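re: that chain from earlier
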Amino acid sequence: MTDPRSDRFVRSHLKTRQLVLLVELGRHGSILHAAQAAHLTQPAASKLLADLEHALGVKLFERLPRGVAPTWYGEVMIRRAGAALAELDAGHQEVMELLSGLSGRVAVGSVLTPSATLLPGAVVALKARQPRVHVAITVETSKILIQQLQGGELDLVIGRVLDSALAAQLSFEPLTDEPHVLIVRAGHPLAGRGDLSLQELAGQSWILPPGGSILRDRLTALFLSAGLDQPQQAVETLSLPVITSLLARSDMVVALPEELVRPYLDARLLAVLPIDLGLRMDVYGIVTRRGHQLSPGAELMLACLREEAQRRD
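^ sequence. v structure.
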């Protein structure tokens, strides 16, 4: 049952401009810059924020010498405001789709491996059915993608739910896990060696994913558990074109799923080092917001992802 106090707050106090202002305050940390981004004067923005805090009875932002910082209550309202605005945008998109036939836009986020394997096949299938649907793809770590999904910036994510506290807010359809191997250029000095050690690998130049990713954490744990320092020579990137170019031009090492670089392996441009470090990532899957109604374009994208995943099994 709807709380009548909440209903009264939304109907009587909450304004769309306040939602926009909350999102911009979260982005900029400054009333002046948030007001400019929301096309408001600074006094108008200050009044909208004061009215909202008065209606809620809590302080949403701490006023600092330079800018503002959200309180815990402010963090909640920023996240909910972003999702509410995304819902309004989705409503507008659905109306336009009904007026002009299925078109619109779907925003998909993906971790690295399915972005180069599962997702392209699904996009091709979607375009074959509805060529006017615009597909926007973001490739990032699961943590960042889930944040963007919660904020309404993405419709679907192919990734992992790393925070169990979010389980009630998200739906997760598992797909597969990711065994990783060590990849180098063909002709690398370590290629073909059957006596490789972790200590020797620690002294190599590495291509690593950004800090905070599952793979980075597991590589760190692998070296630490063996009493070894982290590789001192490293480049951080998630870009597959950058990774393959660096491998081709250097003696760097990277941990990747074989399927991600299968064409390079088949062409004998890259090689797998003969050592098993037991690197397996958690299962990734299709993640959506629980209780959120997807637009027709996003529903079609979801169906194509499911079909492509089944075809690849």
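The mean pLDDT is 87.
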